[in-house]
Amino acid sequence: MKYFGTDGIRGEAYVTLTESLAKKVGKSLCLLDCNKVLIGYDTRESNHMLADAIALGAKSVGKKVIDIGVIPTPGLCYNTILDKCIGVMITASHNPYQDNGIKIFFDGVKIKDEDELSIEEYIDTHDDSIIDNNNGEIIEDTSFVKNYIDFLVSKINPCNLKIGLDLANGATSLIGEEIFKHSSKNLTVTANLPNGRNINFNVGSTHIENISSMVKDNKLDIGFAFDGDGDRMLAVDSDGNLHSGDELIFIIAKHLKENNLLTNNKVVLTIMSNLGIISSLKKNGIDVSLTSVGDRNVLLEMQNNNYVVGGENSGHIIQLHHLSTGDGMLSAIAILNIMSETNKSLKELTNELEIWPDKLVNLKVKDKNIAKDERIQNKVKEILDKYKDEIQLVIRASGTENLLRISCCAKSKELVETTINNFVNLVQNLDAEVK
Question: Most CB within 10 Å of its CB: which of 21, 216, 354, 384?
Fold first, then answer.
């Protein structure tokens, strides 16, 4: 696709993500059969430029637009389910403040590929002119944020745990403390003072060292780090050790199985998931379905087969019995509830896990389409045929950046290092051929 990537439209604000483009995106919502549009956003300084332009475009084609303010992506998603309407989330997730993005939902899920293609065609064949339409309107209403807060609070079982929160100066920073005070009176909070430019800056789920230090320094039981728009979360235990999204899915899935709530005894993970965790799930009688990277792929597999838990190693965790999108705070609540109910620490809940050595390298390239080069594909096949179930190897283009991601997981660290180094050299040599 020309504009849409794996997670909506993404780019640098004022450069590729302009007011003109945003107006055309707003106008293109005429293609979706719903009159109401909710617009939410994280805490980037470019959000209002984009939100206002999208709202003007949508109003000009007769839509009723409601600006619901700063809200996590899953909060916007939740409200589109309540109102059976369109939702536009303005965020670049874990990216720095200079970037921004546009995600479009309808009734709780991202719009279909064919709708994205229709919107792209509309953008390329229409201008950004705005004609006033008396049938459209724009209002502000922050009560939708309260809907989401009430939803999350209803899922909380109070505990006595000492909890740390790194809110990434993002969309969770305005409501995170308010929500988790219902879980525990022992909260320590950081990165909750957004200024438009500090979102994800050395904080949040991409800078886990921040929450790790805070947990150790304050002798906390657990710490949670969220990303800029609140749809992913990673956790650290009382020693400050990281626990990935896959590990947290293991905890949730095992607990559901023990309570006869894991439908079909199956979870959904992606091809990037650690093979050791997959082995651990199977030892607990839990089967795994693997999908391509992307929460949309995970959700589709879950919906098609009536699975209730799935997600990604990065911390996107979908609990479909609660909500149809990844939700960092909802995932944190689930982990806290399990810790309280079982009287076990995060370390104890994961002590049986096998974690095979793995490594991910992000390579800047001139042309990320070289991921499809026959020489790379043949080499990948050769390695997978040789080592079979003892290795996992994925080389893919980033959906939002000019990067190639090389990921390897295997039983031995030596095999991981050798494989990664060989493919880094191969990719660099092929990229050097690109003019």
Answer: 21
Residue 9: CB atoms within 10 A of its CB come to: 26
Known active-site residue 93: yes
pLDDT digits (tens, 9 = 90+) for 111-169: 999 999 999 999 999 999 998 878 899 999 999 999 999 999 999 999 999 999 999 99
**What's the whole-number mean pLDDT along residues 243-263?**
97
Q: What's the rounded Cα separation, in Å, for the pair 316 and 28? A: 29
With contact defined as beta carbons under 8 Å apart, do 29 and 63 qualify? yes
Angle (deg, nearest 10), helices 374-387 and 413-433: 170
The pLDDT, as a whole number, for residue 13 is: 97
Range 336-354 average pLDDT:
96
In the set 93, 183, 273, 280, the catalytic residue is 93
Which residues contact residue 47 at a Cβ distance below 8 angstroms, ignoring those fewer than 6 apart? 41, 90, 100
Give me the residue label for tokens 């617009």: 39
CA distance 264 to 49: 46
The closest of 386, 393, 384 to 416, measured between CA atoms, is 393
Secondary structure class of 163 (helix, strand, coil): strand
